[in-house]
Amino acid sequence: MLNFKQEYIKCYNDKTRIYFIENYLSTFNAMERKDVPFKLFPRQKVFLQSTVKYNNIVAIKHRQAGITTLSAAWTCGQCVFAKKGSPENILCIANKLDQAVELTNKIVTFLDQVPRWMWGNEYYSPDQTSEKNKKSIYIKRNKGYIQLFNGCKIYARASSPHAARGVSSVSVLIMDECAFLTDGMASFSSAVAAMSAVTNAKCFLVSTPNGKDQLYYGIYSKALKGENNFHPVEFKWFQDLRYNRNLKWYRKNNKTGEIEWDVDTVIDKKGNIVYNEERWRELEREGWTPTSPWFENMCKTFNNDEQKIAQEILVSFLGSADNVVPIDTIEEQSQKNVIKITEEWSLRDLAVKETWIWEDPNPTHRYICACDPSSGSGEDKSSIEIIDVDAVDENGTPYFNQVLEYNGKLNGEDIGALVDRYARIYNNALAVVECIGGYGDAVVLTLMKLGYPNLYYDETNVLKTYTNDYAKKLFNKKDDEKLPGFRSNALRIQMISNFVEMLKNNSFRVRSERVITELDTWIFKNGRPDHMDGMHDDNLTCLSMGLFVAQFYMLKTDKIKQKDSCIVQSWYINNSTNTDLNTRHLRENVSISNRKEMARKFNPFERFLKNNTNDIVNACIMLGGFKVKK
């Protein structure tokens, strides 16, 4: 006969709850399609053992690893064996309330499996007909809140800045699919504040990867380096006994180009193998890749979508998010082009620590100085990017080069003064200021007040938005006059598309680690490029604008000028007295390709009208290829 007292003591003393879970709980096995005893896998035991040694655990897992279920089973044990007078307050947070409720329902399912005798004499009697055996262990039980007779409480909350409101003294926090939480950092901060007064409170962050988000990736990556108080636990698919049957490894032989195979030892007809984590870690270090019938079938199920496979199976942060810029492009830019600014770096602006400088100005080069100003409130920052338009690498290949970057809290006149200073140093760079939201107007006004000589002007006759109408009044411009500053309202997608292509073909070379960080968290949201929650894309927007203007304004204008110069030169050759036309073109910066502007400024045939007809005919033949009737 089972000795209840001894069993209770054994379960109580095992703080990992492994004995309790394996001997008294069951779970649904999807592969066998039935409830089975909850027999733990080796990595699941590692997770539970970690709960004794560490208060804070961040777990990275593949899809269907069973860690959410495991957390629910452990939480059930904590409620059953809670100390008298010290009940557990458990807060479960997920992206949506229904997801959090699903977790609490798992906990309730396990609570209902607990033998009645574990709850004490008030809830158990050997007499099967006793009312004690029918007495509910729940005082309250609804969608978002559960309270047990022993005082333990379980809350289900959706992620939000107020997720922990009304919940005091949280002793266990479980954040499920942590990488996918909306307002994740705000939810986490709120919950941690509710835990601050509880001794040995437990915090579990569990998720599959979702790119390099601020909360989950930030905590996990620092945990690996020992830079915070979280303990990392990794679950890989081939460590799961359900999925690693007939496991084998492959790699390409660099000398022969052939695929080599290393097959794990099979121990039964089901394909179960010898479990050996040390062997697998060594194979991974040597460049081997695991596969199994289950893995291959899952890849086909995901239609061989690399992003889904990385996210759902390979527990890889790289490639797991819907990045705007391909991960391999980001990696290539980071490894080949980024130049880290160290303490010993000689190029510095001693007055502005947020400014990073990679190259001094080349007196023969042209530069773009792009500025995306902000209000300076909250986490919003202003960005200045200076781009060398005439850079050439050691192979003679021309490219656009990032030579200076500012990313900080200055705004208004201060950022305008900084643009003026940097742009003048870099050969009076073409200053392109984003003028959406009003902050850019303040920068432009400052530049005009300082007499900056090379400010970019928009064509007002193609701009139709309210902000442009306001800007016309602000700068006292007519409809047919150019407007200072750049307005990207209708050009955002084109700018970003151009920027991405330049990164992919390496025609723009990133030097800044800050830009790489922003690229890592620059994703598609509802089909539009945007930064992850809590992250930023200030520098990316600024670079996109500067490169767009460089390609489709500066270089295009240079080509027009070159063509115009050839035309003017042809007039000069035809009539040596036409030097005034050439100098007027250069002096007034007139675009000869623009017929309206050309006609308004001067008429190149004006002096011919006073001469004979033959001169006019000769000019027409040269410019238009007209045939002369005989």
Give the integer mean of the pLDDT values. 83
Amino- and carboxy-terminal Cα gap: 126 Å
What's the tally of helices? 20
Residues in β-strands, percent: 15-25%
Low-confidence stretches: 461-467, 576-611, 619-630
Total domain count:
4
Architecture of the largest domain, CATH level 2?
A: 3-Layer(aba) Sandwich
CATH 4th-level superfamily of the largest domain? P-loop containing nucleotide triphosphate hydrolases
CATH class of the largest domain: Alpha Beta
The count of β-strands is 23
Q: Give helix % range.
A: 25-40%
* Largest sheet entry: 8 strands, mixed
Quote the CATH topology of the largest domain.
Rossmann fold
TL;DR?
With 630 residues, the protein is an alpha/beta fold. The relative contact order is 0.07.
Describe this structure in words.
By secondary structure, the chain is α/β, with parallel strands linked by helices. The chain has 4 domains: 236 residues, 3-Layer(aba) Sandwich (Rossmann fold), CATH 3.40.50.300; 74 residues, no CATH class; 220 residues, Nucleotidyltransferase, domain 5 (2-Layer Sandwich), CATH 3.30.420; 69 residues, no CATH class. Helix content is 38%, strand content 17%. The chain is built from 20 helices and 23 strands. The strands form 6 sheets. Strands 5-6-7-4-8-9-3-10 form an 8-stranded mixed sheet, sandwiched between helices. A hairpin with a 4-residue loop joins strand 1 and strand 2. Helix 4 packs across helix 5 and helix 11 runs antiparallel to helix 16. The longest helix is centred in the C-terminal third of the chain and has 37 residues. It is elongated, with a radius of gyration of 34 Å. It starts with a helix and ends in a 6-residue tail after the last helix. The C terminus is likely disordered.
